[in-house]
Amino acid sequence: MVATSRLWDEVWEVFVGQAIIGATTTNGGGIFFFVVLALLFYVLSALPMWGTFQKASPQGEPAWAAFVPIYNFIVLLRIAGRPKTWAWFLLLALIPTLGGIALFVIWIIVLNDVSKSFGHGGGFTVGLVLLPIVFWFILWLGASRYRGPQGPSGLAAGPDPGYPPIGGYPQPGYPQQGYPQQGGYPPPPPPGAGYPPPPPPPGAGYPPPPPPAGNYPPPPQPGTAYPPPPPPPTAPPPAPDAPAS
Q1: Which burial class, exposed, middle or buried, applies to 131 when counting CB atoms under 10 A from its CB (0-12, 13-18, 19+)?
Q2: pLDDT of residue 178
Q3: What is d(CA 127, CA 144) in angstroms, rounded to the nearest whole number?
Q4: Segments making up each domain of the chain, as ranges
């Protein structure tokens, strides 16, 4: 694994030293046993990182990079929100003593960013440093949820679009604050179109009143005489008296 903690470096050195001593003092079976143990330890160390890379998708893609030295550190930098140029710090391992100390400090910084990216604090960072295999399994199989890169590079890129902005989701059942927007004024007429005619004054446009009930003739038009009145009705003549007998 890339850039393991100082404690695990010492454990690994003791393990390798004992395996080499056993391989040189016995037959070829000791060498095979050493190779098998080394592969098992490497797979056990990279497997929880592979699962964590899957939870951190798409920043953690490709997840199989957890099994590839150096490349897994580059992907881990992307998950943590650190620039990938930090991978050049791996060359510090070539410097005796001081280089290893500087690389160990950088490794703690990256692990702290990974811890914050999954919603944990400094205590979880200490666990990743002292017991890396155990706490990497907790990141993979636990309820931790990836919240986006929390390092300087990730924060400069903005919040993760898969999460709501600061303030949370709107509460259902409550109306949104603010007043409704009032309608604006109508746009002015184009040049040469002229203005529309003004509306009629109040009271205009009503229909004429209906004629009064009855058989009255309509009034005469101006300049014409009234028609003569109808002749009065005549009574029938009286009947002649009957002759006396």
Answers
A1: middle
A2: 56
A3: 15
A4: 6-156
- Alpha-carbon distance of 109 to 165, in angstroms, equals 26
Fill in the amino acid letter for 20. Answer: I
Query: What are the b/e assignments for 135-170, b being 16+ CB within 10 Å?
Result: bbbbbbeeebebbbbbbebbeeeeeeeeeeeeeeee
Write down the pTM of the prediction.
0.52
Quote the pLDDT of residue 182: 62
Task: Report the alpha-carbon distance of residue 3 to residue 107 in Å, rounded.
Answer: 6
Residues near 20 by Cβ (< 8 Å), separated by ≥ 6?
34
Long-range contacts of 56-62 (CB under 8 A, 24+ apart): 56/117, 56/146, 59/146, 59/148, 59/149, 60/146
Low-confidence ranges of the chain (pLDDT < 70): 1-29, 153-184, 186, 189, 191-196, 200-227, 237, 239-245
- Decide if 52 contacts 139 (C-beta within 8 A): yes
Name residue, tokens 């903690």. Answer: 5
